[in-house]
Amino acid sequence: MQKFKKIIAEEIAKRSADAFGGTALEPNEIEELLEYPPDASMGDVAMPCFKLSRTLRRSPIQIALSLEEALAGADIGVSAKALNGYLNFKVDDAMLADQVLSDVFAEGASYGSPRIGEGKTVVLDYSSPNVAKPFHIGHLGTTIIGHSLKRLHEFAGYKCVGINYLGDWGTQFGKLIVAYRKWGSREDIEKGGIDKLVELYVRFHKEAEENAALNDEARLEFSKLERNDPENIELWQWFIKISLEEYSKTYSQLGIDFDSYKGESFYTDKMPAQIEKLREMGLLKLDDGASIVDLSEYNMPPCLILKRDGSTLYPTRDIAAAVYRKQEYGFDKCIYVTSSAQSLHFAQWFKVVEMMGYDWYSELVHVPYGTVSINGEKLATRTGNVILLKDLIAMAIEKVSQITAEKNPDMSEVERAKIAEEVGVGAVVFYYLSNSRIKDINFILEDALSYDGNTGPYVQYTYARTCSLIEKAKGIPAPEKYSVTTEEERELLKVLALFPEKVSAALEAYEPSVITHFILDLAAAYNRFYHNCQILTHEDAEIVKTRVALTKAANIVLGTAFELICLKKTKQI
Ligand code: ARG
């Protein structure tokens, strides 16, 4: 609809001098005033004239009336009506259909792209699980939000580098090595995968409560690993491989891939240079033996760089990784998606990067999200109340498979399995992305899977509906001229026209839920149109052609929006 706002703003600007005795208004200034009235019957776009009242020294009512008069002869396909200090605009049906549909068909899968990323690079750091620890539902946020942000940026033309910054280094590997040698077997782990590693890790903690010496052993094994002990290196690489195999299954179900898996271990030899720089700049302070950067001036606790024993910390690695990424990719933006529990960590080390004189500090962006609970229960790793992501997805797939079998008893097994996966995974993704990311989410699987709520299955069903209608309409040509005759068609066109603005808003706020909500609006508008308007059976051939075209446009835009939130375009459900 932005396009219409522009047309309106320009026309008003052109005519304002005459209308207001010489005072001309700027198109930009007018465009900013334009809004969408909450009640569509008032118009498609409205201009409240209250703010102009001061500059123009007239009442809003007068301003609206003068503009209505001034615009009376304008041939822009938009009519204006003054009402109580507002100027309400209605776009002509023909113009609305012409502009929106010709844009959608001309641009196809790129309709809606703001094209702001050309020649620019964005690095996205997301998912980043800690190897050999459970990949639980808490990781859903970073994984899905991160990937959706990657798709959004790609859509806007940015070159994107998705990085899985694996937690593949740290004392947990010492613990795992000890536990493996004491209680593990290679065969068992090859067969049982990451679950077996987690079991060993949990057992280590249990036994260490009784036997503190185990912790010393673990420290020793980790320091051997740090000194490249070949046996420990081999085990460490194997643990990572086992973990990655498991993650890959989940990633491929979600339709997610990464451009780099450079994890924490990669930065070990890149930290000393940054620590040295901090020291040279006089930014490091000793605090009880540890080295810190004092951030009290910025009202933050100090950023820890080195522990008393000289070992590095989470922020140290992040600083080294950011410097490396800037050199390697020359990013224009580097985005980190993590739980909001890490907000302080990011604020701290971003500040340290700034203090180090790296002028690109302002290109670092932290995108936080809220916590996830399931059926009202908070996750607690310690008490074992962990729901694994793969189990949640498996439950969703199983449920959809049952529903599909009941609905379509004749469907082949293979077909059913495919649909169950697409819709099951889609249900989880869509439900998760329905809330603004910072809100805490209570995941209720039953709600996510409902076929008639505002859910993944419902919007995928709507998409499938457009596909089957297009299939049936094969051979029906595009109309010479669009013939829009109902309110339902108008509303559908207006929703389609809003897509480019929604994409921009989602990018600006790093908020995939803007797209999720848009999909719901589009699905609702399409379904109202589908139920209330005869499409293929209408007697007027031109009306049929227009309605088929509307269906095709809805199909294209829904499809694009699905891709932006990693939802599969299922043709049958
Ligand atoms: N591995 C970390 C965790 O699971 C997340 C890493 C986020 N990315 C980063 N560059 N710090 O908590």
Summarize the entry for a quick read.
With 573 residues, the protein is an alpha/beta fold.
What do you see in this structure?
Among the domains are: 2-91, 2-Layer Sandwich (Gyrase A, domain 2); 170-257, no CATH class; 396-564, Isoleucyl-tRNA Synthetase, Domain 1, CATH 1.10.730. It has helices at residues 2-19, 27-33, 52-56, 60-71, 93-107, 138-155, 171-183, 186-192, 194-210, 213-226, 230-254, 271-280, 314-329, 343-355, 389-407, 413-432, 445-449, 456-472, 487-509, 513-532, 541-564; strands spanning 45-48, 78-83, 86-91, 121-125, 159-163, 284-287, 290-293, 303-306, 333-339, 364-369, 372-374, 377-378, 441-443. The longest helix is centred in the middle third of the chain and has 25 residues, at 230-254. The protein contains 21 helices and 13 strands. Strands 5-4-9-10 form a four-stranded parallel sheet, sandwiched between helices. Strands 1-3-2 form a three-stranded antiparallel sheet. 55% of the residues lie in helices and 10% in strands. Arginine binds at residues 125, 128-130, 165, 167, 318, 336, 338. The site of arginine has 9 residues, from strand 9.
